[in-house]
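Note to self: keep these together.
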Amino acid sequence: MSDISYHDRQAEGDARDFLALLKPRVMSLVVFTALTGLLVAPVPVHPFVAFTAILFIALGGGASGALNMWYDADIDRVMRRTANRPIPAGRISGGEALGFGLGLAGISCVMLALAANVFAGLFLAFTIFFYVVVYTMWLKRATPQNIVIGGAAGAFPPMIGWAVATGGVSLESLAMFAVIFLWTPPHFWALALFMRDDYSNAGVPMLTVTHGRRATRRHILAYTLILAPVAVGTAFTSIGGPLYLAVALGLNALFIRGAWRLWRRDEAVAEAEKYAAEKRFFYFSLLYLFGHFAALIAQKAVLNLGFGGW
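Structure:
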């Protein structure tokens, strides 16, 4: 009995470690934004097709996470935030993670093409390639603009969801892409402000390492000011409306205020306060993105009821 219990616990632990390779928190963002793209598209999708499509998009996102952890295991070992991940902690080998990630990538892309359409499947394959090869293997270790260019990978999911429904790309899907693409730098640079030593120890040329925290604060403000009109302007596309506009105006006013306060921060004060304001801005940025995409879904629901449009 005791041997069976031990092996059961070991199997459960292994399952949790493989689940951790999928980066569930990142996957949840992928799922939500892809679902938004699918739901706000002008072409209705059968519920079963929608469910299977989102499932395979989630698996594709998880595959990206596993392949990222496989390649970045050396970096993860020296960063406090990532040292307990399955590979650096020794609970899963690099080869297992590589095989797991490649298997999921192949299954997710093929099955999405079969469940929805070939364009959506190819788009998912391109997204995985971009995240793993272009961002993880190249940009991340090569340039402080890593998160700016590489952030495109995280901005593709709503376009994939839209492609599931429509089989193509449109101004509306590009607008959703643009919101995430421009949101990504201030979101991650806020994290880098209070995790600078981790990136420095790992040799990752994050902007805080190469240019310092003062310059990073200026970049956060600049990108926030560029992001705001794009996010608000989405209200005037076919997927927007008064409800979305009201939410976007409120969220962007708060986001700009937060970025302005970070820009004015004295570094000595920030360090003494253990970067509390920077952490608040980082966590609010998650709410900011969720709020915009939730508002798009709510706007679509209101329009389907026959009111709430322009």
